[in-house]
Amino acid sequence: MNNMYFTEEHKLFRESIQDFLKKEVVPHIDKWEKEGAIEKFIWKKFGDMGFLGISYPEAYGGLNLDLFYAVIFLEELQKINSGGFAAAIWAHVYLAMTHLNIEGNDDIKKRYLAPSITGDKIGCLCITEPFGGSDVAGMRSTAVKQGDYYILNGSKTFITNGVYSDYLIVTAKTSPDLGNKGISIFVVDRDSEGVSASKLNKLGWNASDTGEIAFDNVKIPASNLLGSEDEGFGYIMQHFALERLIMGVNAHARAEFALEYVLEYMSQREAFGRTIDKFQALRHSIADLYTEMEMCKAFNYSVTYRLNKGEYVVKEATMSKLKSTKMADEVIYQCLQFMGGYGYMEDYPMARLLRDSRLGPIGGGTSEILREILAKIIIDKKEYKPKA
Fold first, then answer.
1. Of 86-95, 367-376, 378-387, minimum mean pLDDT range
2. Could you tell me the sign of the dihedral formed by the alpha carbons of 182, 185, 186, 188, in that order?
3. Residue-level pLDDT at 134
4. Residue 228: its pLDDT value, please?
5. Closest to 190 in 3D by CA, of 213, 166, 172
6. Which among 259, 240, 275 is positioned nearest to 364, based on CA atoms?
7. Which of 309-344 are b and which e, b meaning 16 or more Cβ less than 10 Å from the residue's Cβ?
8. Active-site pick, 75, 76, 212, 243
9. What's the whole-number mean pLDDT along residues 263-279?
10. Least crowded by CB within 10 Å, which of 60, 145, 359, 379?
11. 46-77 confidence digits (pLDDT tens)
12. Beta bridge partners of 275
């Protein structure tokens, strides 16, 4: 399977990112997990290596590589055991920057995308609202046009990089009477007057800053509108396939990491005169879990292949996130059980993995919402089409 999707260049890239993470990131992870903040210097190091611009145009400093390089990047981020750090990175690269790249004009790309690729500016994507949750169309934030500016009012919540980022990609209703047909997207500078943020305390993802953000009569230059006015809902829907696939890839990668770790542990842990990887009950459980993980990984690679060719894979990406995040939770839960009391200790990685993994079926669209989307596609024959 690896030879089907990955070349020798991909392999060398994986070795490069593994080496970088080991040297530059892993020594700081426990500190960032404890403090709940990632030090700014690491972003610049990622930028200097080109890792923030893997999929972006060379004209703005990117590498313009295929999606399997991004998959490798995501997989290796999951295997340093900090879901929060990984989330901060991929939320910047694949959520905020995606909108800059696809909907931004040349001026916006020069002002925001290029410095995002170098690590000089960090972004976040602000869609979810306190009263809306997964109901994107029900957002209450508004942006009213006044001359050369829009006046933004409203609030967002559960925003990764919401406190420490330099700019925000914000959705708001520019024509409230049109419902989801009246949503627009803007780039908002963090230091704009009227922008405030408070940090939320979470069960996991401790290294990342997750914020609740308020906008009080924030003046946004009209030139910071992304794409066309009132077309934002379509832009959001357009990118859900990539976001869901990313979360599916993250899930199979952390499950693989958990299994690799627990297999090493079981090969050394002895009970009743033999290592515990010799007990049939545990061996058969591992066989089942590993099978589930490999099947999700193979499916996710196939969806990546299709998305890389330009296909609109919203159904398959939705399946990817739904199944893979559920699988990862089950795998990690069982791996913790295999370790007994040690699995419950913070000195071992499984406790953090368990907490971090639990966000998978919640963030980026809950599993319940994803099931209804799939039911509409499968049962009601609803067709979701890419924005023209």
1. 378-387
2. positive
3. 67
4. 96
5. 166
6. 240
7. eeebbbbbbbbbbbbbbbbbbbbbbbbbebbeeebe
8. 243
9. 96
10. 379
11. 999 999 999 999 999 999 999 999 999 999 99
12. 270
**Would you state the structure tokens that stand for residue 5, as one six-digit string?**
């999707």
CB 143 within 8 A of CB 220: yes
* SS3 state at 293: helix
Residue 7 vs residues 11, 20, 28, 63, 256: alpha-carbon distances, Å: 6, 20, 31, 17, 21
Q: Which helix (H) or strand (E) holds 301?
A: helix 280-308
Output the pLDDT for position 388. 62
Q: Which two tokens stand for residue 313?
A: 């894979």
The mean pLDDT value of the chain amounts to: 95
**Residue 243 among the catalytic residues:** yes
> Rounded mean pLDDT of 230-251?
94
Of 218, 215, 204, 64, the closest CA to residue 150 belongs to 218
pLDDT score at 2: 65
Task: Show Cβ contacts of residue 253 under 8 Å, excluding neighbours closer than 6 positions.
Answer: 74, 75, 76, 77, 78, 79
| Type of residue at 192 | S
pTM of the model: 0.95
Strand 123-126 relative to strand 210-221, pairing = unpaired
3-state DSSP assignment of residue 215: strand
> 209 in helix, strand or coil?
coil
**Which residue matches tokens 């610049």?**
44
Residues of 80-117 as b/e, b for ≥16 C-beta within 10 angstroms? bbbbbbbbbbbbbbbbbbbbbbebbeeebbebbbbbbb
pLDDT for 1 beyond 80: no
Q: Which long-range contacts (CB under 8 A, 24 or more apart) does 34-41 make?
A: 34/206, 36/199, 36/206, 36/207, 36/209, 37/164, 37/207, 37/209, 38/85, 38/88, 38/164, 38/207, 38/208, 38/209
Please give the share of the chain, as a percent, with pLDDT higher than 90: 92
Burial letters 165-199, b for 16+ CB under 10 A, else e: bbbbbbbbbbeeeeebebbbbbbbbbebeebebee
Copy the structure tokens of residue 139: 């957002």
Q: Classify strands 167-173 and 123-126 as parallel, antiparallel or unpaired.
A: parallel
